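Q: What residues go here?
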């Protein structure tokens, strides 16, 4: 009987295919939207993790001032770092392998008749190790260059903007009023999690940057690399204890510096991505409820249209529960067909979205199964009332319809 009921449901659905499609359109949109949002959200989270790894997953960032909101919390009130602080951190802490000073500003790079505005970062050769950044060609800074000689290493975006397909090694470029020789070219990294171009950068020795660009020896940011096998908490505690000693911060006094980790950055970005994905998925799930209401309305109309058919079935011996099962199966078949179409559409939208947003395409089978099961549940919940109405009809009254 169940198979016969299923065949009757398909016949009733195919009798008016356009109306049936419009009936399940809400379910299709709801299932597709949920699957697409969750899949793209998973891809975004994976991309965040990958981007953090390219920056250096074992990296710490030390900056003056407290990272808190509100007046009086700016880093301008805190004592700046200097190059000696970097050396002390690297030499005295067993949990730290290397460190580099970092300072950046936006400047115009000029070569011949071409100019390009880019990010100029003053640092040293250790920055390449900290950032997991390899050289495509050329070399890192020599000791003489790190002592204050003008030299620079270019990112791929700057090379394309100033040199096109030409080899920039050995050429001189000008960073506003500072002329420097190109000694290396970085391998391409692409866009970061925030959408910024990581290859849009020029590295120059920190002392050159401090003397000829910033006009100050202050170090606004120190990048540190933890030793393998050392926990993040231990490294942060070691750095905090040594910096409190260097900066003569007494017991009970607040730190006038901040230690940030890549784990914190990754956790924050992933948390934001998860919250947005959850909110968008919840909004998309409302379409399933709307689709369920549409199924219920159409099934009520169908009961009215087929009142005489119901009366004939009851007159020849059909029981009320059989009539109820007929209409309930019809509603479930409608919603599951909508769920199947929604899964196909959702996977297609997720694949296109991942391609457009340049994030990995990572489908989640559990979410697909859950969305499909929910679409079937919508058919049961919203199809029961029309089916119950059909089963409760009086056979004599139904035959008179």
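A:
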């Amino acid at each position: 009987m169940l198979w016969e009921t299923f065949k009757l449901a398909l016949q009733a659905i195919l009798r008016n295919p356009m109306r049936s499609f419009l009936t399940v359109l809400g379910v299709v949109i709801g299932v597709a939207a949920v699957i697409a949002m969750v899949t793209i959200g998973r891809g975004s989270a994976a991309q965040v993790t990958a981007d953090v790894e390219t920056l250096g997953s074992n990296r710490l960032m030390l900056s003056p001032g407290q990272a808190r909101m509100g007046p009086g919390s700016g880093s301008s009130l805190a004592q700046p770092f200097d190059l000696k602080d970097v050396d002390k951190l690297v030499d005295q802490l067993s949990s730290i392998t290397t460190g580099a000073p970092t300072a950046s500003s936006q400047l115009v790079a000029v070569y011949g008749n071409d100019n390009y505005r880019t990010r100029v970062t003053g640092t040293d050769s250790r920055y390449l190790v900290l950032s997991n950044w390899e050289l495509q060609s050329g070399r890192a800074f020599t000791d003489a260059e790190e002592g204050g000689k003008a030299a620079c290493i270019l990112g791929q975006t700057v090379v394309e903007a100033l040199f096109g397909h030409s080899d920039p090694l050995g050429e001189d470029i000008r960073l506003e009023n500072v002329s420097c020789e190109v000694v290396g070219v970085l391998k391409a990294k692409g866009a970061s999690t925030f959408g910024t171009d990581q290859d849009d950068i020029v590295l120059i020795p920190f002392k050159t940057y401090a003397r000829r660009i910033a006009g100050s020896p202050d170090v606004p940011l120190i990048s540190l690399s933890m030793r393998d096998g050392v926990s993040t908490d231990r490294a942060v505690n070691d750095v905090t204890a040594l910096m409190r000693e260097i900066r003569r911060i007494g017991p009970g006094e607040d730190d006038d510096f901040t230690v940030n980790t890549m784990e914190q950055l990754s956790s924050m970005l992933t948390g934001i991505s998860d919250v947005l994905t959850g909110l968008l998925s919840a909004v998309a799930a409302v379409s399933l409820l709307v689709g369920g209401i549409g199924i219920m309305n159409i099934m009520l109309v169908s009961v009215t249209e087929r009142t005489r058919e119901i009366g004939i079935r009851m007159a020849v011996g059909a029981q009320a529960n059989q009539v109820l099962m007929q209409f309930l199966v019809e509603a479930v078949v409608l919603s599951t067909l909508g769920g199947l179409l929604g899964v196909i559409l959702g996977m297609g939208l997720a694949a296109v979205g991942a391609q457009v947003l340049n994030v990995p395409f990572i489908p989640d089978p559990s979410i697909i199964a859950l969305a499909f099961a929910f679409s079937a549940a919508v058919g049961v919940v919203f199809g029961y009332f029309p089916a119950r109405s059909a089963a409760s009809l009086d056979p004599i009254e139904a035959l008179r319809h």
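A: Context that may help when evaluating the design: The first helix runs from residue 2 to 15. Residues 79-255 form one domain.
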